[in-house]
Amino acid sequence: MQDAAGVRAAYAGIAGWIARHGVGALAAKRTEAEALFRRVGITFAVYGEGGDPERLIPFDVIPRILARAEWDRLARGLTQRVKALNAFIADVYAGQEIVKAGRVPAALIAENEAFCRPMIGFAPPAGVYCHISGIDLVRTGPDDFYVLEDNCRTPSGVSYMLENREAMLRLFPTLCSDHRLAPVSHYPEELLETLKEAAPPNCTGTPCVAVLTPGHFNSAYYEHCFLADEMGVEVVEGADLFVEQDVVYMRTTAGPKRVDVLYRRVDDDFLDPKVFRPESMLGVPGIFGAYRAGNVTLANAPGAGIADDKAIYPFVPEMIRFYLGEEPLLQNVPTYLCERDEDRAYVLANLDKLVVKLARGSGGYGMLVGPHSTTEQQAEFAARIRAKPQDYIAQPTLALSTVPTLAEHGIASRHVDLRPYVLMGKEVRIVPGGLTRVALREGSLVVNSSQGGGTKDTWVVEDGTGFDGGSPSQSQSQRQGG
To answer: Where is the Circularly permuted ATP-grasp type domain (predicted)?
Structure first.
């Protein structure tokens, strides 16, 4: 919110509101927001802790702000990155030219759990594999954004981005109207248009779109229903669908109805028991055959996860150069692959300084934050790395900026990240902003909702050039995402 010269331009309106009304008014608004979210039923499931896993995601009422010029720069980099990731997925299941050119090791693809062999030789409509991406960003300075992760499978959290904005409009109508905020409410319309553009070759007429959910036990079930409702389409489970002569139908009260595009939130392994895991009760027998026959589109494509594997991540800048002939606009965080002897030796010698992650993990699980870890935890991770080095990567703990957050005893700095959502159809569409996740515990770098993190509304303001975080010396992490 502030630098040495005072309040940054983008935060001037927020700072003025707080000065006039005080922290007590913010606390009252937070209580009002909790009641609103509880009434609407905005929950997130957390497993493995006993008791009722459904809980509200904490919502911080101080927005995270980006100036329009900052966002435009980010949007160009996001567009470039998603185009390269999609080109990589297409190449992986075709000629693997990037491997032949020596830019990506063959073993990283052939031995990767996310590599979907049934996709070899098949290209989805318009060659789009990754229709919905969530790119996790962190920031270290006024002009320095880093990509922390690429999410090309079933990125979640966009419903919280939309609900956070709706909450802010209700809680602070005058404050919102006083800022020239870039809107986000049109995301469902953009998503639906992107999915319709992905209609399969054998679709005739207006494509019928549906959202395929694993069911109400899934942690993001609220989001599946929310997005289906916002798009005006059906939300279906595997049992609601059947395949006949390579055509997918959903059961309705008026009889079977053909489905052309499925926004699927079911993992690859559970999609089709005839092709993947035979014991799966979540998928639809024969749906992969219908997909290959050109009678249904699955978004995102099976096997798209090969592009967001953490062991593949270090090679994304090279993908941009190889497929697009351009230099990357967004930087990668330096990454050590523990399966490499030299990298592993460095990681084992510096566990107290690094962040160690599972190469195929998510949700903040299976992670060691070196500077905040104990000697015993470091020893445990060293044993894990030696036992299965291919399962781990490591990154330095960057000096990342912070944003103002309403804490227990007033306003305090907390680390955040940013997950913008990128849609790819006939064109690339990005709603300005994204989901900001915030690490609510002081000093914590873990922002995931499953690990106790919260969320903020993300404002892209049409005027002002403010930088949203403290100096790198003050901070350690930020993101916008879900």
So the answer is: 63-439
